[in-house]
Amino acid sequence: MNDSPLLQCNDVRKAFPKPDGAELLVLEGMNLELREGQIVGLLGRSGSGKSTLLRLIAGLAEPTAGQLRYMGRPIAGPAPGIAMVFQSFALFPWLTVFENVALGLEAQRMPRADIRKRSLAAIDLIGLDGFESAYPRELSGGMRQRVGFARALVVHPNILLMDEPFSALDVLTAETLRTDFLDLWAEGRMPIKGVILVTHNIEEAVLMCDRILVFGSNPGRILSEIKVPLTQPRNRLDPSFRELVERIYVEMTARPPGGSSAARQERFAGLGIGSVLPRVSSNLLAGLMETVAAPPFNGKADLPDIASDLQMEIDELFPVAETLQMLRFAELEGGDLKLTEDGLAFARSELDERKRIFTRHLLTYVPLAAHIRRVLDERASHSARKSRFVDELEDFMNEEAADQTLRAVVSWGRYAEAFAYDDDHAMFSLENPT
Amino acid sequence: MNRFAPQAFLRDFASRWDVLAFIVVIGLIAFLGETSRGLFAPLSQLEITPLSLDPSHLPEYAARTTFRMLAGLALSLVFTLTYATWAAKSERAGKLLVPILDILQSVPILGFISITVVFFMSLAPGRVLGAEFAAIFAIFTSQAWNMAFSFYQSLRTVPLELTEASESFRLSPWMRFWQLEVPFGMPALIWNMMMSMSGGWFFVVASESISVGSTTVALPGVGSYIALAIQQKNLSAIGWAIATMLVVILLYDQVLFRPLVAWVDRFRVEQEPGVRVPDSWALTMMRRSRLIQASTVAFHSAVLWTSRAVKRGDEPLVAAAAPKRRLDVLWVSLVVAAVVLGLWHIVWVLIKNTSPREALEVCGLATLTMLRVFVLIALASCVWVPVGVWVGMRPRAAQIVQPIAQFMAAFPANLLFPIAVYGIVSWKLNPDIFLSPLMILGTQWYILFNVIAGASAIPAEMRYVAANFRVTGWLWWRKVALPAILPFYVTGAITASGGSWNAAIVAELATWGDTRVKARGLGSYIAEATAAGDFHRIILGIGTMSLFVVVINRLFWRPLYYYAERKYRLT
To answer: How many CA atoms lie within 13 A of B306 on its CB side?
Structure first.
């Protein structure tokens, strides 16, 4: 009987309708199986749809196509055997720790005495003894997330869903909570049979999971599945641990197979005016180029090394690295970041020369920047309304992405002094204030 | 061993907070009984026991006025929880309900009284109850719209993760409403309640002594007392009424709102530890007292019990998502029909009973009143912005002045009108000019306390920078102080402007004994139409005023507000 999976996702697809009738695809071809005794990690950057998949499993949203089954039954709305732990804890500030924990049982209309017994047991298990009558505001972040865990465990779920549960905590607290959780899990003291963990922290995934699904973006899809054969408790410094981390970095920086995935087009590859640009400040770009150019990297750096050197999570590091790649200041492959000739030249130069190099690359490799500059050059007034470009962008992307893209290009254009922008009047121009 | 320890026994039996609480509770019950006794008396009762200017009656009158206030507040709360919830939960209904609320907000509240008093009197013919209804309804109109708006906004901004948590733990909609949505909306709701309370006092005073055409009612209360005092030119009675009102508002603030504000602090979602919790002796009493604790536990259990009793809908998500086209069509056609009917009715009534020339004239009067409002706001700003900034930069001074400013805003300024009118009559001043300040007498305080709040919110670092670079004088005002307080100032000015339009109806036409002083404007037009019971002119006047207020809000205040929020809000 234990052979039937706790959870099954078959060809799940999720899309949101856009105002113009087309649809925005966020998840595609999701196949996933959770069996008893497993922790499965969903690893990816923001926008890779991993949280969306978690919400589909939780019954908080519905798939556009495909099937989700919990213990063999299709999921329609929140299922009684699936509980969730939230990134921002999602505690009710007006309820005490005890009341917060008891809430899920109240909803089930369990007899009072049982609610009390079970809630106290859960509070005890998760190490919150003595805090029953405290309000969440009185607790530290770590204690709050413990309440989140207790609240989820008290309903005795078969599956525990965790949405980046440690990412709002400081490094030390997060580590304590992870270890405590793994101990309870290993000892079988929690009433749960399987766990799905969403994270963007590669080490966390390798530390906690039995299997890791690496997600790619635009639209969200599974790039690869990685088994973690290490035994618990795991050691971060163990060479086989490091090797797995390195391997995941390689997976995540791999060029898309075939290169012609329509999905990839929205970001960087085959870059047209209609591609979404990330908001990465020129300071970050310059800083990363300088770091990679300097010893010990000398122009070529291993991403895990640089991530731990700079204390950056992949969510922060990848956009910067990819922007460098887009501007042809660096090559990103096989988990390495290698500066190009111009990248090295930039890192060595003074401010004026840097700006000259940056302008050249911006106007050559970012079609939107080139387009704005061309329009301004052609007009007698050398000025143009922002709305004009917004309209053009919105043919390709939604309003929010268009706004982000324009902000990115404005910030780079200002740094390069390629054009000026006046926010009060929403006007682009060639004049800089004197 | 078995020695009887009286002190310990007493401590167990009742804390001193219990004693205090007992007195307050019994006092409240007695008060409710006392004041509601007269409700079913026939109207003629009012003539048999006419109002008396003897100050010894004032406590009773004040109690009655307060009772009306509470009733209006309770009604507003019920309205808020239903109307706003409906508007937020049903997309279809929301499309109509929200704009309606927006327009209702712009209708002058005294206009509601003029129109509705006859209707309410006919509900309970010949009984005091009808007149009470009208007065309570006036208070309701001064609070309900604000409160409903605030609750609607809250419902729309419940943090997504909290909603997901309550869904994931399968709370029934009923439970979700009481456990998540109401608590979440509570802080904003209480704050709005307190703010609109200020308006409430103004209108409860104005609505107690109502006369529309031949229908004249003077309900026992502070408002009627002062109306009588005006009629009899009794200056000392007016002094007594003002003193009474000061005490009433102070009590209301201490016993009702301070505890509420302190209590509601726990419902704030931003969970920053270390933020100072507002304190209130009354709340401490309630918390410490076992009597009151027991009753809050009872309320909590009631919520949980009803949650259990209400059947939970285990319907799948699918059903709710699919839009029902046919119902949509029906809904839209119903709305269109209602609008067309309403429009036709208004046009027909107006064309039949008034001339286009009159309409034009009313617009001219409205322009006059508008001019007054703007000039007064500008004048008040010139005075209160510098004062507010000065006070706001000094925490000590702010602590003293801020509550006073809020208190002044709550004080019904119309109680002070007779004194001003007395002055105008005695010195034969030009009423077109000298009646005008009355419009802003009660509302200017909104500007002051918002500016104080803004100035105290200027980060210390920003002030250090200014001092460090020796930014002083006019440059300091232009580059530091004024931009920093602008969002706050605009909020205050909007409230002040709205309040002044409302006050115009009372301020532009004032009496002292049999002397009438009148300033030309839309306010006096409506007041005269009301006194004459000329229903069509009331409609024309109020319609025009609502139109002016809506247009000014849309074209002037709202853009200014967004501009200030976007550009100058310090976060």
So the answer is: 12
The answer, yes or no, to whether residue B226 has pLDDT greater than 80, is yes
Name the residue range of residue B514's domain: 354-571
- B253 and B382 assigned to the same domain: no
Which CATH fold would you assign to the domain A282-429? Answer: Arc Repressor Mutant, subunit A (1.10.10)
> What average pLDDT does range B416-427 have in this prediction?
83
Quick check: B169 and A59 CB within 8 A? Answer: no
pLDDT in tens, B43-55: 665 655 667 788 8
Q: How high is the pLDDT of residue B461?
A: 84
The 3-state secondary structure of A205-248 reads: HHHHCCEEEEEECCCEEEEEEEECCCCCCCCCCCHHHHHHHHHH
Beta strands in A114-210 (DSSP E): 159-163, 194-199
What span, in angstroms and rounded, lies between the C-alpha atoms of B86 and B94? Answer: 7
Taking the C-alpha atoms of residue B111 and residue B545, their distance in angstroms, rounded to an integer, is: 10
Nearest one of A378, A380, A381, A360 to A369, comparing CA atoms: A360
For position B6, what pLDDT does the model report?
Answer: 43
Residues of A with CB under 8 A from a CB of B: 55, 58-60, 62, 76-78, 80, 82-84, 86-90, 92-95, 103-104, 106-109, 135-138, 144, 151, 155
Residue A36 confidence (pLDDT): 92
Tokens of B227: 């109306």
Number of domains in chain B: 2
Report pLDDT digits (tens) over A19-62: 666 777 888 888 999 999 999 999 988 778 888 899 999 998 88
Residue A278's contacts (CB-CB under 8 Å, 6 or more residues apart) are: A319, A322, A323, A404, A408
Predicted TM-score of the model (pTM): 0.79
Calpha distance B63→A94 (Å, rounded): 34
